[in-house]
Design goal:
- It is a single chain.
- With about 190 residues, the protein is an alpha/beta fold.
- Helix 3 links the parallel strand 3 and strand 4.
- It has five helices and nine strands, in the order αββαβαβαββαβββ.
- The protein has a single domain (about 50-190), classed as Rossmann fold (3-Layer(aba) Sandwich).
- About 40% of the residues lie in helices and about 25% in strands.
- It has helices spanning about 1-30, 50-60, 80-90, 100-110, 140-155; strands at about 35, 40, 70-75, 90-95, 115, 130-135, 160-165, 175-185, 185-190.
- The N and C termini lie far apart (about 40 Å).
- The structure holds S-adenosylmethionine (SAM).
- S-adenosylmethionine binds near residues 41, 42 and 43.
Length: about 190
């Protein structure tokens, strides 16, 4: 009974966060869209909160009880992933190309650690215990370039939570271990 109430409570909370994310998506860009002036990149579209939360919990469970693991959210938007990750015990860092989003994230969710930067230029993937992304490129060639950089730079043992992934060379490589196929371009895998 108590468990059922907890589940209902969590579901109400994740629905609420989804509504807030949808509000910002519509206010900022009018819906699912590319950035104006940056057609290669998706603008802010939040992931479904319950799905993101479950992926983060799964990734945490793959780290063998590590304390305060570092999570890098690539294309962090307003910081919702960092906020969820922090609640689970991660140290979140978010990389975001839009100065406007970075400013909003700093006011809305300052603990999410969102800072301005380009995921194609970021030089510290090798420090992350978990690397998370949802997109961020509309342009598939750039998306692939970004994914390959992450896979090259990640340290052994790092867990990569990939959503809207386009490249699959990693699957044929002994350098990576599949942890979970989430379907529809979502994968969780580890660098060996
Ligand atoms: C689909 S949203 C995902 C937001 C967040 N990760 C989430 O799951 O809720 C993609 C985000 O990537 C950002 N982005 C796009 N291109 C980028 C780039 N080259 N470097 C950093 N961020 C980028 C966009 O501004 C947008 O906030």
């Amino acid at each position: 009974m108590a468990e059922l109430e907890m589940t209902r409570g969590l579901s109400a909370l994740t629905d609420l966060v989804d509504d807030v994310q949808r509000y910002f998506m519509l206010e900022l860009e009018g819906g699912i869209a590319a950035h104006r002036g940056r057609p290669e990149s998706w603008a802010f579209v939040g992931m479904e909160t319950a799905v993101a939360l479950e992926q983060l919990e799964f990734a945490l469970g793959c780290l063998g009880g590590m304390r305060s693991p570092l999570l890098v959210d690539c294309g962090a938007g307003l910081g919702f992933i960092g906020m969820l990750a922090r609640g689970l015990g991660f140290r979140p860092v978010g990389i975001e190309i839009s100065p406007r989003y970075v400013e909003l994230a700093g006011k809305l969710l300052p603990w999410a650690g969102v800072a301005e930067g380009d995921v194609l230029e970021y030089g510290s993937y090798g420090e992350a215990d978990v690397i998370f992304y949802y997109g961020p490129f509309k342009d598939e060639a750039l998306q692939e370039r970004f994914e390959l950089k992450v896979e090259r730079d990640a340290k052994p043992g790092a867990v990569i939570v990939a959503n809207r992934k386009v490249s699959d060379a990693w699957r044929a490589s002994p350098g990576f271990e599949l942890l979970r196929d989430g379907g529809a371009g979502s994968w969780i895998f580890r660098k060996c």
